[in-house]
Amino acid sequence: MKLIIAFLRLIRWPNLVFIAITQWLFYFFVVESLQTANASETISASADNFLFYLLILASVLIAAAGYIINDYFDLNIDAINKPDKVVVDRTVKRRWAIAWHLVFSFTGILLSLYISYKTGTWIIVVINSLCVLLLWLYSTTFKKKLLTGNVIISALTAWVIIVVYFFAGAAIINYNGWHEGSYTFDVKKLYKFTILYAGFAFILSLIREVVKDLEDMHGDAKYHCKTMPIEWGVPASKVFTAVWIIVCSASLTIIQIYVWQSGWWLSAVYCILFIILPLLFILKELKAAVIPADYHRISSIIKLVMLTGILSMLFFKFYS
User: Fold this and answer.
1) pLDDT tens track for 113-152
2) Cβ(45)–Cβ(169) under 8 Å?
3) How confident is the model at residue 42 (pLDDT cuts 50, 70, 90)?
4) Which residue has the higher pLDDT, 306 or 73?
């Protein structure tokens, strides 16, 4: 039992559940709500529920592999920053950590290949394979570089939503625009909602990554990492984070004005109470933060805001 608990901690099982919920909600609440009046039984000719659940599994496995390899290479740093949470080489042997990383990564890529073959959407296997590579490079190199690692993780977080857009049958915008007749859903609206949620995920993830760097400064500095707090200092890192919080809050406020005018008043109230106001609270807490425990608390609140943001997809069923 101890080994199982340690393994679940290693793969960050709550984060994996979050990924699955995000993709499930976006597919069954956002995409389905945009089906046209003449839509057939499936959302698109190339997608079905079985393949979609395989897509979720592929995303979860690739993410789990990324968490494992990150802990594998961060063993010494984590021993300083989070000594009570170290799993690799204490409960799970290093060779088994590498083995599970390879199994999860390979399985995730194989599933992505099968999905791409069945749907004809080859960008899924290409980008998912790139995700595996980036997660490895992030753990070995980019995590220690100024902003590079933060941007990579934020982009991968956004991809969790974007991949569903491609799976649903939508294509990258071409110069001729969309051909509405080839879709069973409003692809233009889907594109807008994909950008909205993926952008939200990117910005919140970027904010949280910098906050985590502030939390882990001590161990990162000892092993010569060039994270933002170490290179720019704590005040500049706080300003950087605060600017993105303000940008995100302002953007969401503008969107809620439009949402309210469209008659989605319940959704607007929800977003104001459970997304925008908590972001302003985070801004206040960030200014007062001093010790690692302060930044850890802020990081946890940001994760909660990400969850409430994703749960806002439920409103698409009410207003569709």
Assistant:
1) 999 998 888 999 999 999 999 999 999 989 888 899 999 9
2) yes
3) very low
4) 306
